[in-house]
Amino acid sequence: MSPRRLLVRALGLAACASVVPRVGSAQGVPPLVFHAELGGGAVLTAPQQRQLGLLGSFEGALRVGVRLHPAVSVRLSGSYWGYPARTDRGADTLFGAGSVQAGVRLDPAIRTIGRLWLDLDVGVGFTGTRPVQARPAGGVGVGFDLRVTPSFALGPFVRVETLVPMPGNDQLAAPITLVG
Hints:
Layout: H1 3-14, E1 18-19, E2 32-43, H2 46-52, E3 57-69, E4 72-86, E5 92-106, E6 109-110, E7 114-127, E8 133-149, E9 152-155, E10 157-163, E11 176-179
Antiparallel strand pairs: 1-2, 1-9, 2-3, 2-11, 3-4, 4-5, 5-7, 6-7, 7-8, 8-9, 8-10, 10-11
């Protein structure tokens, strides 16, 4: 499948945006919060786009949290970022990166309509194939989860994620912006 078709499909799936089932509290145990996220976007830096021929990006993420307060949760997340590209020889390829991050999410309820949220995550990202390179990763996102049922919500989001270059490497910073 060509990177362009892959990006179009990822953007189509992004219409589903953030899927948020919530598991209720049982006898004083803080409720668990689950988020699944799909989004599409673009790499923000011109050197990444020129050197690698990147056509865009897409993201899939799973996030599991514990609600500490009605508007605050802490969480762990796993993400995959794909970068469809066209090489200088015209071949289609797909670059990828993954991350494992921890973070905090602020998401006050807006009556019974849904939740406006802001989150911040930091952790480690993985790039390359042989050898796999670990480097710092982080991101910030904002969105709105529209309540469909008491335990399920859908909504749009905007997120900026980045992989930080390590000193002494020829790596580039890789900030991407995502919309879903």
